[in-house]
Predict the 3D structure of the following.
Amino acid sequence: MVSRGRLLQLRDHQALIAWEGTARLGFAVISTEDAAKAELLAIRAVTPWRGIGSALLAAAEAQAVEVGGVRLLVATTNDNVDALRFYQRRGFVLTALRLGAFAEVRRLKGLPETGEFLGAYGVPIRDELLLSKDMR
Ligand SMILES: CC(C)(COP(=O)(O)OP(=O)(O)OC[C@H]1O[C@@H](n2cnc3c(N)ncnc32)[C@H](O)[C@@H]1OP(=O)(O)O)[C@@H](O)C(=O)NCCC(=O)NCCS
């Protein structure tokens, strides 16, 4: 994935998996390399609107706090209005807008013109929005 202009391998970071019995319901990936600014690199609920994302985010926040994290950062894109709502409803505030950041992402890894997730609403992907939550 690409976040904040960096090409990252999710497998290099810690994954949290949501389970129901033996079924995997979703995952989150968190980087705690910089404890002061832990970063949620990815979060995905296989089936939305069942509370899976909330549970994963709570687990990621607990992990950030455990390593002494002061802030938890997350980046999303302008098309992902459901994610923007999701994070802001859970205490994240917008900290930056990287206008046109996805031209560079397309160059680094290729990317469709619009998001593919449920909730992308066909909005062209252009910009990156950064959010942060104070964990103190
Ligand atoms: C963002 C994401 C992780 C949220 O996970 P989730 O399991 O759907 O989240 P939850 O069920 O815990 O909460 C979803 C919210 O949608 C609401 N919701 C429920 N049914 C809904 C519906 N039919 N339409 C819209 N919203 C609905 C829930 O009430 C909840 O609202 P709240 O924020 O007011 O509490 C999930 O949508 C996802 O995997 N998206 C695709 C991947 C992605 O975009 N990841 C983020 C990249 S930055």
Summary: The two ends are 28 Å apart (CA to CA). The mean pLDDT is 91. The domain at 2-134 is CATH 3.40.630.30 (Aminopeptidase). The first strand starts at residue 2 and ends at 3.
